[in-house]
Specification:
Helix content: 25-40%
Shape: globular
Oligomer: single chain
CATH architecture: 2-Layer Sandwich
Distance between the termini: 41 Å
Number of helices: 5
Structural class: alpha+beta
Radius of gyration: 15 Å
CATH topology: Beta-Lactamase
Order of helices and strands: HHEEEHEEEHH
């Protein structure tokens, strides 16, 4: 799907311009604004733990940090394990998520891997929400280009330092 009002190339140019002028968080907020999802983030893993290295909540833009969670309590674990995209429009109706820790709270998700030049997963880029959302609204080609730009441009922050020492 193409981003409403913008071609993938135009949306990527806007993302890149914002990234250079205002940084990762502002660029992600702009990307989020192309959808009706509430959240966007770059998640990192540290052993069996996960946390957002960068995060934006359209309803609470002042919140910049999330609590660390077990990696398998996020849908990002599906991206990590497959090395590919993972989407769900409504986790409550998605048999793949039966029994997952987030199934009753995070109802929609669309994530792609963020990989370095050697093909090693360094994180995930994802949109998600507490209500069902249609993942078809997300331009997956744009998401993959953004993930690549973030990785190759070295814009992906490390796992939050104040948590990394606690993860072991």
């Amino acid at each position: 799907m193409h981003t409403p009002g913008f071609s993938t190339d135009e949306a990527f140019a806007r993302f890149s311009s914002t990234l250079q002028a205002s940084g990762v968080r502002a660029a992600l907020a702009g990307l989020l604004g192309l959808t009706d999802y509430r959240f966007i983030g770059i998640f990192r893993f540290d052993g069996d733990r996960a946390n957002a290295a960068v995060f934006f909540d359209r309803e609470n833009p002042e919140v910049q940090h999330l609590d660390e969670v077990p990696a398998d309590a996020t849908y990002c674990c599906y991206v990590r394990d497959s090395g590919g995209a993972f989407t769900t429009a409504n986790a409550l109706l998605d048999e793949r998520l039966k029994g997952h820790a987030a199934q009753a709270t995070v109802l929609s998700y669309c994530g792609v891997p963020v990989m370095d030049s050697a093909g090693t997963l360094i994180g995930t880029l994802c949109h998600y929400d507490l209500v069902p959302r249609d993942p078809a609204q997300i331009d997956m080609a744009l998401m993959l280009r953004v993930a690549s730009e973030l990785a190759y441009g070295q814009h992906v922050p490390p796992y939050p330092r104040h948590l990394a020492s606690k993860a072991l």
